[in-house]
Design a protein that fits this description.
The chain is an alpha/beta fold. 46% of the residues lie in helices and 15% in strands. α6 links the parallel β5 and β6. The chain is globular, with a radius of gyration of 22 Å.
């Protein structure tokens, strides 16, 4: 008599660029290898090889152009179609807008049994005119070919419903939202992080400086123009603004005068991209995140997990994490005056800062622990396979 070993189903995850696999799905792919033969596809890049080694999955590169190009998109669709026919996945799950389009069309052509797409922010939220109409058409096409759509926040789900991009029956928020949850053991105030934070403050600031901080792409869409202008207008004694991230001048440049202030103003510190943001978060007195659009922002989860008092815009995603005047402050998108007022409120009130610091961490512990998100997604996969 022979022992029959059940073959694992094959799962294919697709993102536009390897950085998304590397950062957005860190740890999740390795978790899924317990239950699936996992393959990952994105455009080429050194991070793709890192994903292969770190997560223990098979990887394959297919160039996907992030802009609008019918010719390039058809080439990507054809290449992914051929790869799908080769590995025969039971489930395909895509992230990011362009990867969603390429993956869902290819998977439909190849008759993949389960086609899933996660929505983690939509560029069309902050665009107008013909470009917005094109982006709407792309989203609708992607959603049409998917069996299930996973907005990574309740706010994003409501946006999709409001704009009639997909039928409600196709929409589901996994767990409480988030594409990957957050590692609460890592994003905690450990002794080593405190020491690194002290070094940062000693290197760049005076002992009595009050630090407003921001982490993210330094672009218009993240509200950096309003943030810098609000900070300068406040003219607070001993206040500093610390910015972490990268410029993306080719996609969404800042105003020239804002860029100049960042580079020349002695009260603004730009430290670039940092792999480990924890000591910088600890060094901040208040985290400010005035983004124009989000899915469910990882950096806001990270700041909240580190117990930072937060001022954020009331865009989709941010409102899932921050409850106004309960665990932080929300202001209207692109409202510089409101941003100034609330930054000043937290500057003046240690009692508020301490209260929000405790409450925002508790919210993350309750709703966004990454193991909860992973297990919820695994159950989602299983439920689809059982229906086949």
């Amino acid at each position: 008599m022979f022992n029959l070993i059940k073959k694992k189903p094959t799962l294919l995850r697709v993102t536009t660029v390897p950085q998304s696999l590397w950062k957005l799905l860190e740890g999740q792919l390795a978790f899924m290898t317990q239950y699936y033969n996992v393959h990952a596809v994105s455009s080429a890049g050194e991070k793709l090889e890192i994903v292969k080694e770190r997560e223990g999955v098979s990887t394959h590169s297919i160039e996907m152009y992030r802009g609008i190009s019918i010719v390039r998109d058809f080439k990507s669709i054809w290449k992914l179609y051929r790869y799908i026919k080769k590995i025969k996945p039971d489930i395909i799950h895509s992230h990011t807008p362009k990867a969603g389009l390429i993956a869902m069309v290819s998977a439909k052509m190849a008759k993949v049994p389960v086609r899933l797409h996660t929505v983690a922010g939509m560029p069309l939220e902050s665009t107008k005119g013909i470009k917005r109409q094109i982006l709407i058409s792309v989203e609708k096409l992607c959603y049409h070919f998917a069996h299930k759509i996973y907005p990574n926040s309740l706010g994003l789900k409501e946006f999709i419903i409001k704009n009639k991009l997909a039928p409600t029956s196709k929409l589901r928020v996994v767990a409480s939202g988030s594409s990957n949850g957050i590692d609460l053991d890592y994003f905690d105030i450990h002794d080593c992080v405190i020491e690194q934070s002290k070094s940062i403050r000693d290197q760049y600031f005076h002992e009595d400086d009050f630090i407003f901080g921001f982490i993210g792409r330094l672009v218009k869409d993240k509200g950096v123009n309003e943030l810098v202008k609000a900070f300068l207008s406040l003219e607070l004694p001993n206040a500093k603004l610390m910015l972490l991230g990268k410029y993306e001048d080719h996609l969404d440049p800042l105003l020239p005068e804002v860029r100049e202030e960042i580079e020349k103003n002695k009260n603004i510190l730009f430290v670039g991209y940092q792999k480990d943001v924890r000591p910088y978060l600890v060094a901040m007195d208040v985290f400010v995140f005035p983004s124009h659009r989000e899915g469910l922002p990882n950096v806001l989860l990270q700041a909240a997990a580190m117990g930072k008092p937060i001022v954020a815009s009331n865009c989709n995603g941010n409102t899932d994490i921050i409850i106004h005047k309960q665990n932080g402050i929300l202001v209207n998108v692109n409202d510089q005056k409101a941003l100034e007022e609330q930054m000043l409120n937290l500057f003046n009130s240690k009692e508020l800062r301490d209260r929000y610091s405790v409450s925002v961490r508790k919210n993350i512990e309750k709703r966004y622990k990454r193991e909860v998100v992973w297990e919820s997604l695994r159950e989602e996969y299983s439920s689809h396979l059982k229906k086949l």
